[in-house]
Amino acid sequence: MRIVYFISMFMILGWVFKNNLNAQSKDLTVYVAISEECPVCKNITQDLWAISERYSERVNLVLLFPFRISNYKTIHEFKVKYNLQKWKAVLDEDQSKSRSLGILITPEALIMDKNGVVLYNGRVNDLYSKPGKKNHNARLNDLSDAIEASLNGTNIKKPWPKAVGCYITFEN
User: Fold this and answer.
1) Which of 47, 114, 116, 158 is in the most buried spot, having the most CB atoms within 10 Å?
2) Using one digit for the tens of pLDDT, what is the confidence trace for 126-161?
3) What CATH number matches the domain at 2-167, 3.40.50.2300, 3.40.30.10, 1.10.150.240, 3.30.830.10?
């Protein structure tokens, strides 16, 4: 009986995770490619939580998991551990969503308007200045600033700051 319960639960969770992008009624969608095992991703979760607290009512927030190690269970555990339940989660098993968005690194953020126009593509913050080089504190909250500018109709200054983290290994 327990097995049936767990199988049913994972089937329901799978359907919810897979179909949660269909409810995009807000003007902006923020994607953040993330990996449960990337140290940079783990270190920016506090900023992602702050973004969800500030913007979840006005913006679609989506965590994109583009690695084969990810599954519905690990995604759920990651979201609970880092208090990211306000973020929708997408298991990008075939990496098609990451490819179509041009996302190459975790964590990498992308803001898109309801017409599919990319308004920002870059880092979440400046906690890491280059791979392996962690600053003591993030001074710039690039993603939060970009969301605020997008909501206010202000252009985001280019060049956008490049994401620093773990490269996504794309499979053919």
Assistant:
1) 47
2) 887 777 677 777 787 889 999 999 999 998 888 898
3) 3.40.30.10
